[in-house]
């Protein structure tokens, strides 16, 4: 409800219920206030900084057929998942260029590039970088918690398209 959104916006510390209110349809009328609050919190937390990260493409395997994505399973391209030695070489090459933050990227293929794979490769990657983020298939809260113990610092979630008819395909 609108009251839930207003309460969430004024809360000093937000809960999961607040988050649900802020992404509900009732929050649409509050978008300007939400944008202002997001900017305030971002500046409070990070200051006026810009952070750079390098994407480390671990795999382009994907079990989905999204029309808007280059990793789509129907795209005819050579599929590749990096092994530990290849990951080590990529990490060294990225570090040699002066970067200290990486974003791990995969397609969505939980059986071949899922938690078991991440358990194997996170220690290798973590050794090289002070910040490790991830943009991969959706995982459970328990899986994210485990990855946090392995050194994951951030999760990036991107909406690949905002065009509803395209997204529906």
From TrEMBL:
InterPro entries: Aldolase_TIM, rSAM, rSAM_sf, ThiH/NoCL/HydG-like. Pfam families: Radical_SAM (PF04055). It comes from the Bacteria. Keywords: Iron, Iron-sulfur, Metal-binding, S-adenosyl-L-methionine. One of its GO terms (molecular function) is iron-sulfur cluster binding. Its cofactor is [4Fe-4S] cluster. PROSITE patterns: RADICAL_SAM. The keyword Iron applies. Residues 48-169 form the Radical SAM core domain. This is 2-iminoacetate synthase ThiH. It comes from Aeromonas cavernicola. The lineage of its organism: Bacteria, Pseudomonadati, Pseudomonadota, Gammaproteobacteria, Aeromonadales.
